[in-house]
Amino acid sequence: MVNDSLDSIRHQTRFVLHIVERDIFKRMGTTAMMVAIFCWLDQVPFAISLLILLPPFEVAAAIAVRKLPKEDAEISKRFISFVWFLQIGSTIVYLSPAFHLTLQGTAPMFLAAFLWLSGIFVHITNTFFSMPFYNWTLMLPSFSAAFGVLWMAAQMEQNPETRSQWFVAMTMLVVYVFNTFETLHKQTDTHRALDRARKEANNRLKELESLTRHDSLTGLLNRRGFDLSLADLLNRTGPNPSVAVFLLDLDGFKPINDTYSHDAGDMVLKTIGDRLTEMVSGHGCAARFGGDEFALVLKDRVDQAAALEFGRKLVLSIQQPIHHSGRALQVSASVGVALAATGKETVGNLCTAADQAMYRAKGSHGAKVVLYEAESFTRRTSLEDRRTILRAMERGEIRPFYQPKVDLKTGAIYGHEALARWVRPDTGVIPPSAFLPQINELGLQGDFLLYMAGRVLADIDTLIEEQLFPGDISINIPEIALATRSGRRDFRKLLDQHPAARLQLTLEITEDVFIQRATDTIMESIARFRRMGLRVALDDFGTGFASFQHLRQLEFDELKIDPSFLHGLGTDKRAEVIVSGFLSMAAGLGVSVVAEGIETTGQLAILQRLGCAYGQGFYFGRAGPFEEFRERVCSETARRAVHKEQLRQA
């Protein structure tokens, strides 16, 4: 019990000082009585010592009461130690009369000593029962005093007693009985004080909880309160709950606020809140998300027709005039509706769906109520999507797959391109087209780049440690790593952690980066990366918006022809002319060319005839995980060793 937490001891210290302040007159009376008794017993020196020792403790306690901080958390360890020292010191002084009485060596004095000790026991145990730290630490010297008194009595010969000594013993008995009942009474007082404090704390917690869950203007739930209520409702309703969520945005509210003052606007919001509360009374809850946006949830089983009908009633109710200062103010509302029909929906999914439906209602000319139907809405990314993607990266579910890049003359694999794949335990491999748009929309390009590049560099380091030559490894670089100082700094810091692996990297950028940010910054970033030993490739060439001026200014090592230009090879003469032009341009610029998307023998033959040096595509192999990548590198390393040995022998 002594090992209570510091917060608990702080709380106990506050109530100890409350008791000290409350019982001061009782202690003064007790001290006066003991001084009188010892004077009557001709023990004047000891009586004087009590008068000298006890007042300093009382003065120090009074100072501590005045210095007590308002909050428990502000009570320092030094302050606690000071209060504890005062309690221990005063307790020892109050125990000393028991020893002095025992020294008289008579039965009534020994009885008086034990009655005095028993009174102290009762006072400590009943006064400090709810404060274990102080209760047990104060009882230790008390128990020790009791054993000491017994030991002294056993060692002494009994002296003849007097009537006055028996009178003292009887007085001690009366004091003991009085002290017992008085302590019990004070214990009740302490209980009441603790109950009052507990009730005050609970009331404050309820007030704080209400403030964190309710809108201060309308009294409706706020966004947090609504989410918690909806989550609880979804958990309790089970399968096929048919819970309906309505999201409302007021139309025409801003002109009222601007024209007739904020008081008029507040009146409108309060009235709308009252109407919504009345409409869902007993069947759900209403909330204000902020501004002029409201939400409702119906917990009764609601189908699509009933939800749309209720939404129309909402619109009609909100359109009713609101009278303020002799004026009839009127607003309308656009309502989005989402149904939880499967029992698997989450709060985030339902609110996002209702939000999309509400925006469609707001943008339409006729409909004021729109029901969300997944097949007719383009799914929008949400915070839940963000958490899911970040969690997938933390778990290593998103990882690089490697597609081989081939020398078209020899058929040898000279490198790979690292492509992102999401390997989910439940659905298997997900292609990048299913999650890269979400990463871009959520602004996670920087995080994703550092994560993917880190995985690729670690894979390259693994192969190098195994004395395998991975060749040229391409990774796609988003605009953020080239056009922002922070992005460039973070990426460079990652590269510095892998000095050997970075020399195998080729950074693939698209033409679009030139029209999105300052060209000078892009050029500077590319130049810096090339000085670090990295190669740069211009990806998806011909599909972006770069001008030939950009191509002349840009320092790059490789040009990658987009697969769309290869589809017509062998069937469309224009495709061959365009590819031939790209190859001539690359030769003039002194850069190599990689044709992406090679799928057929015919495409390969034409590219070889046109003089294209490198290519990649399904014809040579699909992107595979690290294990397949490692096997290809092992095979290619072995093939090169054999070829080298053959050349040496020749």
List keywords for this structure.
16 strands, TIM Barrel, alpha/beta
Structure description:
The chain is of the alpha/beta class and 650 residues long. The chain folds into three domains: 6-208, no CATH class; 223-376, 2-Layer Sandwich (Alpha-Beta Plaits), CATH 3.30.70.270; 408-556 and 620-649, TIM Barrel (Alpha-Beta Barrel). Helices cover 59% and strands 15% of the residues. It is built from 22 helices and 16 strands. The protein has helices at 6-22, 24-40, 44-67, 77-102, 107-127, 132-155, 163-213, 223-237, 253-280, 304-319, 347-363, 383-395, 436-441, 445-465, 480-483, 485-496, 513-516, 519-531, 548-553, 573-589, 601-610, 626-649; strands at 243-251, 284-290, 293-298, 322-324, 327-329, 332-340, 369-371, 398-407, 413-424, 428-430, 472-476, 505-510, 535-541, 558-561, 592-596, 614-616. The strands form three sheets. An eight-stranded mixed beta barrel has the order 8-9-11-12-13-14-15-16, surrounded by five helices. A five-stranded mixed β-sheet has the order 2-3-1-6-7, sandwiched between helices. Strand 8 (398-407) and strand 9 form a beta hairpin. The chain is elongated, with a radius of gyration of 43 Å. The model has no long low-confidence stretch (mean pLDDT 83).
Give the helix/strand layout.
Elements: H1 6-22, H2 24-40, H3 44-67, H4 77-102, H5 107-127, H6 132-155, H7 163-213, H8 223-237, E1 243-251, H9 253-280, E2 284-290, E3 293-298, H10 304-319, E4 322-324, E5 327-329, E6 332-340, H11 347-363, E7 369-371, H12 383-395, E8 398-407, E9 413-424, E10 428-430, H13 436-441, H14 445-465, E11 472-476, H15 480-483, H16 485-496, E12 505-510, H17 513-516, H18 519-531, E13 535-541, H19 548-553, E14 558-561, H20 573-589, E15 592-596, H21 601-610, E16 614-616, H22 626-649
Parallel strand pairs: 6-7, 9-11, 11-12, 12-13, 13-14, 14-15, 15-16
Antiparallel strand pairs: 1-3, 1-6, 2-3, 4-5, 8-9, 8-16, 9-10
